[in-house]
Every structure is written in C-alpha cells, then in structure tokens.
Known about the structure:
5-stranded mixed barrel; alpha+beta; 2 domains
Amino acid sequence: MYRVYSWLKKAPRVGAFFVLVAWLSPAWPDTCTAPQAGEPVQVRYVSDGDTLILTDNRKVRLIGINTPEVAHKDQPTQPLAIRARDRLRQLLFQHGNRARLLVGEQKTDRYRRKLAHLWLPDGKNLAAELLREGLGWTIAIPPNTRLLDCYREAEATARAAGRGVWNQPDYAARPSTELGLRDSGFQRVRGRVVRVNHGGGALWINLQGRFAIRIPDRDLREFPHPPDRSWVGRSVEARGWAFNTKGELRMTVHHPFMLQFLD
C-alpha cells in the first residue's frame, strides 16, 4: 500500500496534453517581444545550440530550450546538433554578434553558466527562433518560466510542421519499457503509470519498466492538480534528463509542461 498525502487532490481528466493549456500561467502579454530592460552584449563564440560565450568571457545558457548535444568527452555528436549550433551562429552573425540579454530569476546553473533570454537587435528571441525551426525542445524549469508561452508556441509551430527534431526518428518519445539503465541524458519518455507515492521530499510516479519520475516537494506548487493515485493506469509522456540510480532510470520534473497525459 502506498501513501498519497491529503493535499494531493485528484487531477481532472480533461484530455490529452491538457497540461499545455490548463497548467500554464500567463507570461508577458506579447510573449516574444524584447523587453526595454536588458543588457546589450557581444557574443564571442557559440559552442552549441543553447550555449554561447560573450566577449567578456561569461558563459550563457539559453533559458527555455534544450538542443541536441555536440560531441563531448566520450559522447558522439547527436543528430541536428551541428545544424542547431550553426543556425545560432548564423542568426548572431547577421547582426554583428550583438544581442540583448535578460538574466533569469535563477541567475546561474550548477555549471556556473548565466541563465538568460537573448534577443537580436531586430527583436527576435533566439531560443524561439531555434524552437520554431525544430532545432530543440522547450524546457520549463522554475523559476525561469517567464517566457514559457513564447517558447511553447514556437515549439508547437515546428511540431505541427514536422520540422527538425519532430521529424527525426532518433528523437521520438521512447516507451519506458524499452529503456535500459544506460539510456541517460535528455529524453522524451512515454509509459503507463503503475504507482504514485510520496517519499524522500518528492512525489514519485513509477511507469512500466524501471522508470520513475520525481517531482520535488518545492515544485509541487507549480502543479494546480498534483499527480495522485487517479493517475494509475493512465499513459503519460515526460521530457527531461534521465539518470541512472539505485537500479532504475529516473527523471526529475519541475513543471507541469514537462509532463503530459497521452490518453
């Protein structure tokens, strides 16, 4: 028998992908418009589709997007990684490598990179441009979700048109039952929920196979209807970074956008 805390109320069944509509809080009125605030910067180098270095040597990680990885250590270059990197370089080069930077509410990540939104001088949001071309996936990690509507809409455009990653078999959502312990890294995973419980400062959603989704307690406030036992038997898709621990593959999800019903 598993415990579900009393504050975990039942989530209404309102159809596939309901989190894309019902759980997203409003962003700016014109979600992709460049703000008046922001710091003019010059870009020196683009290392991949979501990471760049400024002329003052600050390393910047774009908020709201994850692009395929270029070769790193013993990991080979992923499909479309070079295309995403080169497209970001091209967009910047067309504007003299100038941009306007707005640092997120969470200013740095664990690698000490600046977390920021970037706009070109013509007002185009760089992450949105890449997402619209299908060169990455939208990600939502609180508290840096201010432009989530912008990025979600850009991704939806690419997905509907079957562009980039949405037309790449290597990036199709993978069944949880087919994943092994070595399948770490960014994934889209789908599967049937077999258990929902709470423990260790997090809510846990176990899918068929050896795959568990973890939602830290501090992030449950982002979920108007936190997962509960009514989810058992339903099919979901999660996106995020999978990691191997304690004999199973796990994924930490911080925002409802990263977790969708499929049925």
